[in-house]
Amino acid sequence: MPPLYDDMGTAVHLVRPPRRVVSLVPSLTEAVAVGHRDALVGATQWCTHPGDLDVVRVRGTKNPDREAIARLRPDLVIANKEENRELDVTRLRAAGVPVWVTVIETVPQALDSLERLFAEALQVPVPDWLDAARELWSGPLPETTVTAAVPIWRDPWMVVGRSTFTGDLLRRAGVANAFARHPDRYPHMALAEIDRPDVGVVLLPDEPYVFTESDGPEAFRRTPTRLVSGRLITWYGPSLLPAHEMLRRLVAAL
């Protein structure tokens, strides 16, 4: 087969259309599993959807067990520039394992990257849910009706900054990211810089930090908070469908 080129522009040499796939990205694990579960032979411990996925677990996104991956004899490993380490990708390739790296910082990038993943890398039909997601999330940007801060960690506090999928997703739902112009993508911030008058709401997801009713909202004295599904604001894949409705309802309630 002629070489294919992933989102990084790196040549990926496949012997055949992939029949054995290891995914190192929770979003992409779910995306593949929805219609092609039989192709998945390995995934990380953070790949929680579908809940009944029965594959070999190869540790985490940042510390994958490369020997375990090689033992699975995958035709293709799926990775992401932000989620996975360049070192792991490099060493897997050096061991003869083909790796397809995605690059996703906006919703349009996600839609295009997923389409290429299915059509070019996996060589299967583009799923209907992806067409539906493109219809929901394409079109002109709406006016923003609220400014939100999105912490992803506490002690120290970290928030969603510039050039992130989450920030772009929120913007396309009419929500402005309070830290969209920060020079860092995930900056550390003092609590007072988040809990401030011009922030209309603080969205507290349940991943990567698990914010709960008793862990997170109590820290904010000025700004109202909302607990939200981390999957629906950080994952790209079938979650884009329920994410649209969740954010529509959230914006309407603010």
From TrEMBL:
Pfam families referenced in this protein's UniProt entry, alphabetically: Peripla_BP_2
Signal is among the record's keywords: yes
Residues in Fe/B12 periplasmic-binding domain copies: 28-86
Keywords: Receptor, Signal
Homology family: Belongs to the bacterial solute-binding protein 8 family.
Protein's name in the database: Helical backbone metal receptor
